[in-house]
Design brief:
The chain has about 300 residues and is mainly alpha-helical. The chain folds into two domains: about 35 residues, no CATH class; about 220 residues, MetI-like fold. Helix content is about 70%, strand content about 0%.
Length: about 300
Amino acid sequence: MKSATAIRESGSDRLFMFAVYGFLSLFGVLIFYPLYFILISSFSSAEAVIRGDVWLWPIDPTLIAYESVLKYPMIWSSFRNSIFYAAAGTLVSVSLTVMMGYPLSRQTFVGRGMLIWLILFAMMFSGGLIPFYILVKSLGMLNTPWAMIIPGALSSYSVIIAKTFFQSTISNELYNAAEIDGCSDIRFITSIVLPLSKPIIAVLALWAAVGSWNSYFGALIFLSEKNLFPLQLILREILVLNSISNSSFNMSPELLRRMEEIRTLLKYALIVVTSVPILLLFPFIQKHFIKGVMIGSLKE
């Protein structure tokens, strides 16, 4: 005996759902296939990739691309640099964002309105690259790891998101109750605010980590010593600066073809190597990230 009456879908409803699932499946394939193509190309022979024979699986599987990447002298040092820049940059960025976003969420904070307007102004307008470079140089951060950590540590957009989360999650009643019980501001932040803020902290951490890991323009501008280069700058050096130069015209066609094959394999292998750490990080914070990005979309 059925405990409930099943709701029968009409033909138009089933057709609509079929169209929705079909569209989502097509959209998923369009997103997933380029990533899959890069992966199988990194394991295929260079000749097969250049001919365009690689579509669904590796052709003439080989590990020569990864062997070449791991033998490149600057890969390991740049990989360590990128990990340090991403970890330190994420820690500094999340700390500063929380320390600025939480006070702005309190209605009793003096000067709150003026600071919010200044943050919005900074989010819409910039002084430009040259003043930015002069500022970093005047602070003595050129050719130091701090040039990759401090200048981009605080994002106006992240501060606004953090402020919105604190304002909607940490109510004034909760703060007043803690204050009546004799809870200090520091104790309130460490014991109540931060445990309740795991979703927004996860969002801010992932944004900062991905931005720091993928960044190369700052290193290109502020760093000239190779021992400080991040992985992305080494990737650029391999793929761009090692392209065919004027001296290549003196090389034989066979050597030029071989160089082009090596560059092709290195390109795909390096993309995989640089993407794996971030892809491995996301599953651990996926639950909090999904909850955090929904800030302001639902109202209970």
